Amino acid sequence: MNHRADLHTHTKASDGTCTPRENVRLAKEAGLAAVAITDHDIVAGIAEAVEAGREWGVEVVPGVEISSSADGQDIHVLGYFIPYQSEAFQESLSELRKTRFERNRLMIERLQELGFAITLEDVYRRKQGADKNIGRPHIAEEMVERGYVASMQEAFDKYLGKGGLAYVNPPRISPQQAIDLIRQSGGVAVLAHPGLYGNDVLVRELIRYGLDGIEVWHPDNDEAAVDRYRKLADECGLIQTGGSDFHGWRGGEPYHAMLGSSTADHSAVVRLRQLAEQRQGTLSGD
Ligand code: AMP
Ligand code: ZN
Ligand code: FE
Ligand code: FE
């Protein structure tokens, strides 16, 4: 076992394709000490992963990736050691998924206006379970299967990505509200893939507001970004995290990146846990 931790992975509970148990198995095979489950706006996959982690001797960090937006730009905030068993916390995430559902509906409406015979029902049929936590990758998958585009990437480039023909982004909670939600629940707030935003003024603003950490290692942070955010983290005393953003397999390839391909040192997990314990102690009045 090495001392690495992949702190950003998705499962079937959102837009990944693997079960939580499979993510933990891949972490074990990669020799990782720890893996976090960070599904979009949902914590439904965590319990299964924790169980698998116990069986296989991999530390599982409970997490979530909250979708927020600032000036029309999606900003993702990771929450670690959040109270995933709390009904109140689950309920606040379920509120956030209502915006996601509305966004999906509007995007599919746009696709129909563009002449594609795709329906909300088709896309939602792709997903099992009572809580269909659908994301853009599911819409892209449906478009590929129907032959409307040749690849998931083409679906994003032409239609679903920012500025695409079917792109819609209704107002969401602000990144500041996402940070509040995470911290007030006793979790630790980390800015996901800062290299994607092209807006370090905002990154600094969110650090001042209350971020606890920043995702330094991520497939979408290039070398210059890694350098820049490491320095910024040092300067501001932030926890430096990293993760692959693994989303399972699509078209026989790891979607986004292979689990374990971007990681943080395990000491980041220790710091995340310490901060969460300190915060939870304060919350419960100990
Ligand atoms: P959603 O949460 O529904 O907005 O979808 C976000 C997910 O879509 C991300 O986690 C990525 O997996 C994927 N995604 C977003 N933008 C792109 C892009 N430009 N190209 C490929 N995949 C993307
Ligand atoms: Zn995703
Ligand atoms: Fe993200
Ligand atoms: Fe992600």
Task: Summarize it.
The chain is an alpha/beta fold.
Report on this model:
The chain is of the alpha/beta class and 286 residues long. The protein has one domain: Alpha-Beta Barrel (TIM Barrel), CATH 3.20.20.140. 43% of the residues lie in helices and 16% in strands. It is built from ten helices and ten strands. The strands form two sheets. Strands 7-6-5-4-3-2-1-10 form an eight-stranded mixed beta sheet. Helix 1 packs parallel to helix 2 and helix 5 crosses helix 6. The mean pLDDT is 96. The site of one fe (iii) ion (FE) has 4 residues, from loops.
Write the layout of secondary structure elements.
Layout: E1 4-6, H1 20-29, E2 34-37, H2 46-56, E3 59-70, E4 73-80, H3 87-113, H4 120-124, H5 136-145, H6 152-160, H7 175-184, E5 188-191, H8 200-209, E6 213-217, H9 223-236, E7 239-242, E8 249-250, E9 253-254, E10 264-265, H10 266-283
Parallel strand pairs: 1-2, 2-3, 5-6, 6-7
Antiparallel strand pairs: 1-10, 3-4, 4-5, 8-9
Helix pairs in contact: 1-2, 5-6
Bound molecules: adenosine monophosphate, zinc ion and fe (iii) ion (2 copies).
